[in-house]
Design brief:
The protein is α/β, with parallel strands linked by helices. It contains 13 helices and five strands. Helix content is 69%, strand content 8%. The chain has a five-stranded mixed β-sheet with strand order 2-1-3-4-5, sandwiched between helices.
Length: 376
């Protein structure tokens, strides 16, 4: 009986320890959520009181929407072109003259195959060749208005003697070649990048200047909770601004949205996480708000200029084009354009989405490490 009593007592002790541990875990989890809610609420209140920052974050995107929405004209060479039906040395040589077009080596078997290549972005121009070796019609991808407009100008400049003057030109996805249809989808990514990076960087640096960041560290809140709590309000505000810009683009400029709005919002999340993490990284370097603004400008300009949002990647020299492969905006820009103008979804866009998810993880880890080191 003594042995049985001892075993029962041990079992009861073990049960009490497990129950105590579970209660402690539940209490810790509950406390973590309470602290996270508290810091997030504080950030929302502080953001609401800072009217100048809110006005800047909301007003600047509207100004950029008007500026970019009414069009920017650029020139580009090396436009990808494809022959359809059969090869024609005369047409190929005329297209490649003056480096206006870069003709693919392969020849599409049919017009349907060429349309698939245009839809997938493999080529921008498809010239259909008849049995005589002369072109009968031309298909142009209008989702990139800059490239399409330049392609049409170059095609019109070809003389009839060259034998490549098209009989009929069919512009797909953006028949009117409206600059707004091209710029507004690109601007969604640029504005999200600008708002998310600048607001997060300045918000954290302002806390450090005012000394409230050190006061927060004296509370029971953990460093990870502090980091997440500070970026949640800015992420919510950035998503609201992105939705606002999208709606205004649809109403004000009649930009089509042929894809799924839900997929557009879903694919924007890893991109937004990357932008916010970059803002946190900037805040670990800057000592004051002026330095934060200067550093974010230094970080944002390469993304806007080298990502293909304004200038086509094909127009950027190879010596610096590799930098674009390291920028989140490079992968989010084709997502927005293809969803708006071509109606593509995850099946076609998963490579860009996968890269954005990987970038979000990498930038978040770096931001957490540097943010923690700076707080220490």
């Amino acid at each position: 009986m003594d042995a049985k009593d001892d075993k029962a007592a041990q079992t009861n002790d073990f049960t009490r320890e497990v129950s105590t541990s579970a209660a402690v875990a539940r209490h810790a989890s509950s406390g973590s959520w309470r602290r996270l809610r508290a810091i997030t609420r504080k950030e929302f209140i502080q953001l609401a009181r800072d009217r100048r920052t809110v006005a800047l974050m909301v007003g600047m995107p509207l100004v950029l929407l008007i500026i970019f929405g009414y069009g920017i004209r650029l020139s580009v060479n090396g436009i990808s072109a494809e022959l359809v039906g059969r090869n024609s040395p005369t047409v190929r040589a005329a297209l490649q003259a003056q480096n206006h077009f870069k003709v693919l080596v392969t020849v599409a078997n049919s017009e349907s195959a060429a349309r698939r290549d245009l839809l997938d972005g493999r080529t921008s121009v498809a010239v259909i060749i008849a049995a005589s070796g002369l072109p009968t019609s031309v298909l142009v991808d209008g989702s990139n208005a800059f490239i399409a407009q330049n392609a049409l100008d170059y095609l019109r400049s070809l003389t009839s003697a060259s034998g490549v003057k098209p009989v009929n030109v069919d512009v797909l996805y953006n028949p009117a070649l409206r600059s707004a249809d091209f710029m507004v989808p690109s601007e969604v990514g640029m504005i999200m990048l600008w708002v998310g990076t600048v607001a997060t960087a300045i918000g954290v640096v302002r806390e450090r200047e005012q000394g409230t960041l050190e006061q927060l560290m004296m509370t029971p809140i953990r460093k990870l909770e502090l980091m997440v709590g500070k970026i949640l309000p800015y992420s919510a505000l950035t998503l609201v601004i992105a939705v606002m810009i999208t709606v205004l683009g649809l109403l004000l400029f009649q930009v089509p949205l042929r894809g799924s709005p839900f997929e557009l919002l879903l694919f924007a999340i890893p991109y937004l996480v990357s932008a916010l993490s970059i803002g946190l990284l900037v805040s670990t370097v800057a000592q004051n708000q002026r330095q934060a603004m200067q550093t974010t400008t230094f970080v944002l300009l390469p993304q806007i200029l080298l990502s293909g949002a304004l200038f086509p990647l094909s127009a950027i020299p190879w010596g610096i084009r590799w930098v674009s492969q390291l920028l989140p905006l490079t992968y989010f820009t084709p997502i927005t354009r293809n969803i708006f103008l071509k109606g593509l979804g995850f099946t076609q866009l998963w490579p860009q989405v996968a890269v954005l998810c990987a970038m979000a993880v990498v930038f978040t880890i770096l931001a957490a490490l540097f943010f923690k080191t700076r707080l220490d």
